[in-house]
C-alpha cells in the first residue's frame, strides 16, 4: 500500500551524482576503510606498511574513496595534502603546495617554532626549483615569511629533493606522534620521470620507517604504470581495485539515504535500478536522483524508475559521456567508434588494436597518434600490450546509440 502522507520533496533528494561528490552512503568500501585504519596506525608507530593505490574505471568512486581515506588521516590528527596530477605538468609545485597544507595542519600544534620555520624554508627551497613552465596555472606561492633554505631539497634532482622534503615533513609529524598523508588523484598522469622519482622517494622513506604515506588513485592501468616505473612498487603499494558495487552494496547505496528521509523502495524498483546501472556508482547516483524527483510518494516503485530512466540517461549522455566525447579530436572519435563496434558482445572489454585498424582499413602505426591521444586524455587505457579499452563504463553503448 502506498502511503500518500509523504510527498517526495526534491529539496530533500539525498543523492549526489557528480565527479568527486560525496555520496550520502559510501557503500561497499568497508574493507578499504578498515585496511587504511591499520596503515595509519602502523605507520604512525614506525612499523613497515604498504600504502594503498586505488584503481578503476571512471565514475566508480576513486576520488570519493581517496577523500574518505584523507578524512580518516585528518581524524587521527595527521597532516594531509592532496594533488591532482595532470599530464605534462611536473609534480614538484603541486607537492610543495600539498605539503604546505599538511604543515599548516601540524605547525600550530608543534612546540618548536624554529623547527617549523626550518621546514617552511626547506619547502620554499624545494618549490623554487620549479621550472617556469611548470608554474603555469598554479596560483599557489611558497611561503613568504621565511627565506629559502640552502642545500636542502633544492638540488633540482626531484628524487633527492623529495627524499629530503619527505624526511623533514615526516620528522615534524613524528614529533607529534602522527604522520603525513599525501593523496594523489589521477596518478596515472604523472610523467614517467616524476613517477620514478616519487616511487624512489617513497621507497627510501619507508626504509627509514618515517611516518609519511603516499596514497594514489587512478585509472585501471595505474598498477601497471607503477610496476613498469619501479619493480619494487608492488612492495610499496597495496593495489586495490575500485569496482562497481555488488548487488547488496548497491541496495545500501540506494536505501540508506532514502530511509533517513523516511522513504522506502519496492524490491522490484531495486532490481530495476541495479539492471539499469550495473552497480556503477555514478550511474546509481544519477538514476536514484532522477527517480526520487519523479516518484510521487514512498515506496518508490519500478514504474517510478521507468518514468525517470530517460531523464537519467539524458543527463548522463550530456554530463558523463558527452563531456568526455567532446574532448576527442575527429580522428580520435573515429577510433573510438571502431572500438565501440568491436566491443559489441564483449561488454566493452579490451579489444585488440590490430582489429581496430582493420575495421578502419588502416595501418596500425597510422593510428598510433589517435590511440596515444585518447590514452593521454584518459578516455582509453591499455591493460595489456596490443589492446585498448574504454575507461568510461558503458561508453561503447553510448557511442553505438549516438551514431544510430
Ligand atoms: N561507494 C559508493 N557508494 C555510492 N555512491 C558512490 C560511491 N562511490 C562513489 N559514489 C558516487 O559515484 C560518483 C562518482 O564518484 P567519483 O567521482 O569518486 O568517481 P571516480 O572513480 O573518481 O571517477 P573519475 O575516474 O571520473 O574521476 C559520485 O556521484 C559519487 O557520489
Ligand atoms: Mg576521480
UniProtKB/TrEMBL annotation:
GO MF term (any one): heme binding
SUPFAM superfamilies registered for this protein in UniProt: P-loop containing nucleoside triphosphate hydrolases
Annotated stretches, region: Disordered: 1-25
Residue ranges of domain Cytochrome c in the record: 174-281
Database matches in InterPro entries: AAA_16, Cyt_c-like_dom, P-loop_NTPase
Keywords: Heme, Iron, Metal-binding
Protein name, as recorded: AAA ATPase-like protein
Amino acid at each position: 500500500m502506498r502511503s500518500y502522507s509523504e510527498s517526495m520533496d526534491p529539496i530533500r533528494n539525498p543523492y549526489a551524482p557528480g565527479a568527486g561528490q560525496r555520496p550520502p552512503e559510501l557503500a561497499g568500501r568497508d574493507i578499504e576503510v578498515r585496511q587504511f585504519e591499520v596503515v595509519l596506525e602502523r605507520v604512525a608507530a614506525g612499523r613497515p606498511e604498504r600504502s594503498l593505490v586505488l584503481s578503476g574505471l571512471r565514475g566508480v568512486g576513486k576520488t570519493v574513496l581517496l577523500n574518505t581515506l584523507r578524512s580518516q588521516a585528518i581524524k587521527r590528527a595527521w597532516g594531509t595534502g592532496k594533488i591532482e596530477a595532470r599530464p605534462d605538468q611536473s609534480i614538484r609545485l603541486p607537492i610543495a603546495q600539498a605539503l604546505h597544507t599538511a604543515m599548516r595542519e601540524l605547525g600550530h600544534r608543534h612546540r618548536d617554532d624554529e623547527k617549523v620555520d626550518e621546514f617552511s624554508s626547506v619547502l620554499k627551497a624545494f618549490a623554487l626549483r620549479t621550472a617556469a613552465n611548470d608554474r603555469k596555472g598554479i596560483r599557489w606561492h611558497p611561503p613568504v615569511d621565511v627565506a629559502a633554505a640552502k642545500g636542502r631539497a633544492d638540488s633540482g634532482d626531484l628524487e633527492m629533493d623529495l627524499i629530503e622534503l619527505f624526511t623533514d615533513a615526516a620528522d615534524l609529524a613524528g614529533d607529534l606522534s602522527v604522520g603525513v598523508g599525501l593523496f594523489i588523484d589521477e596518478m596515472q598522469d604523472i610523467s614517467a620521470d616524476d613517477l620514478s622519482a616519487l616511487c624512489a622517494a617513497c621507497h627510501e622513506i619507508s626504509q627509514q620507517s618515517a611516518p609519511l604515506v603516499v596514497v594514489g588513485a587512478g585509472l585501471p592501468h595505474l598498477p601497471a604504470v607503477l610496476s613498469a616505473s619501479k619493480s619494487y612498487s608492488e612492495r610499496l603499494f597495496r593495489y586495490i581495485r575500485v569496482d562497481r558495487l555488488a548487488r547488496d552494496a548497491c541496495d545500501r547505496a540506494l536505501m540508506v539515504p532514502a530511509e533517513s528521509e523516511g522513504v522506502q523502495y519496492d524490491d522490484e524498483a531495486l532490481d530495476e535500478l541495479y539492471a539499469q546501472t550495473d552497480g556503477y556508482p555514478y550511474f546509481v547516483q544519477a538514476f536514484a536522483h532522477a527517480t526520487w524527483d519523479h516518484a510521487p510518494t514512498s515506496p518508490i516503485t519500478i514504474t517510478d524508475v521507468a518514468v525517470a530512466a530517460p531523464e537519467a540517461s539524458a543527463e548522463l549522455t550530456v554530463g558523463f559521456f558527452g563531456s568526455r566525447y567532446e574532448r576527442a579530436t575527429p580522428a580520435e572519435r573515429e577510433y573510438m567508434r571502431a572500438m565501440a563496434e568491436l566491443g559489441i558482445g564483449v561488454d566493452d572489454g579490451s579489444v585488440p588494436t590490430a582489429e581496430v585498424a582493420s575495421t578502419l582499413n588502416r595501418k596500425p602505426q597510422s593510428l598510433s597518434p589517435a590511440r596515444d591521444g585518447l590514452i593521454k586524455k584518459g578516455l582509453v587505457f591499455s591493460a595489456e600490450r596490443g589492446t585498448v579499452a574504454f575507461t568510461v563504463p558503458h561508453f561503447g553503448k553510448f557511442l553505438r546509440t549516438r551514431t544510430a
